[in-house]
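Figure 2 data, in text form.
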Amino acid sequence: MKKLLLAAGLLVSVQLVKAQDIQLIPKAGLSFSRQSISNVEGEKSKAGFTAGLGVNVNIKNTAFSIQPELNYVSAGTKIKNDNNKYNLNYLELPVLVKYSFGPVYINAGPSIGLAVGGMNKMESFYQAKVQRLNFGIQMGGGLAIPVGKGAVLLDARYALGLTDVSKGPATAKNRGFVATIGYAIPLK
């Protein structure tokens, strides 16, 4: 029964996707992140770098598409009292549902991130281990400007972390704003 349901799901998925409407999207930009930490005041945003690659798959006969991505994101926070920056770098995999109306689009969806750097400094600040997996929600929008065969994408989104990244007595959740520029390359 499971195999039959899987086969039916794959068949429906193939029918919904138009092969000529798949785009590869390399992108780069800035992240402005901070953490919401209990029992700590003076968290400030810090600027960081982000880069990634997305695949936008249009759903047949609709203005909707699915856009999974793999991004490197420099997250973390800055604390006003000690003037330190705490970087917590992630490989993030958001899967966004995108709705386009003309050149403007909005998107939202879940994301999962794996901490790949900055854990030691964060652990000494938290005085506890860092949770390596971070679940969250991303939402935003952008503008697709046709250039050549593809389009330049100006994208902005808010990332809301749902996971307590500190395994200690204080809770710490990631928050951030990400702005990127990319180019949607049509695949045929």
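Caption note: The first helix runs from residue 2 to 16.
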